[in-house]
Amino acid sequence: MVDQRDYYEVLEVDRRATSAEITAAYRKMAVRYHPDKNPGNADAASRFKEAARAFEVLSDSDLRGRYDRFGHAGVEGGRRHDFNDMSDVFEAFGDLFGGSIFGDAFGGGGGSRSRQARARKGRDVFCQVHLSLVEAARGVTKTVEFERHETCGECDGSGAKKGTKPQSCDYCAGRGQVIQSAGVFRLQSTCPACRGAGSIVRDRCTACGGEGVTQEHVARKVTIPAGVDRDVRVRLAGEGEPGGSGGPPGDCYCVIEIEDHPFLAREGRDLHCEVPVSFTQAALGATVEVPTLDGAKPLEIARGTQPGDVIRVRGLGMPEVRGRGIGDLHVHVHVEVPKRLSPRAEELLRELAAEEHADVSPKRTSFFSKLAEYFQVRETAAEGDEANTDDKEQA
Question: Quick one: pLDDT band at residue 294, thresholds 50, 70, 90?
Answer without folding.
Answer: very high
